[in-house]
Amino acid sequence: MVLFLAARFPDIDFFREERVQNMLLDILFILSRENEAISYRQGMHEIAALALWVVDRDKVAVDTPPSPSQPYAALPPH
How many domains does the chain have? Predict the structure, then answer.
């Protein structure tokens, strides 16, 4: 599956990161274990990869809590 991701998204460095590949393998393994009737199907890695990419890009840093006067200051600019 890891090879599929690197080949499917060659221009996106995110999918070549070891931590991302490990997360995707964990996600797909757990999904397969918890849904034995479905197990793993061709293309599931692509759906999981795109969902993980969106979640990763949408994250907000929580290093410092927002101040009450500027609650949205920690959000990245769009």
Answer: 1
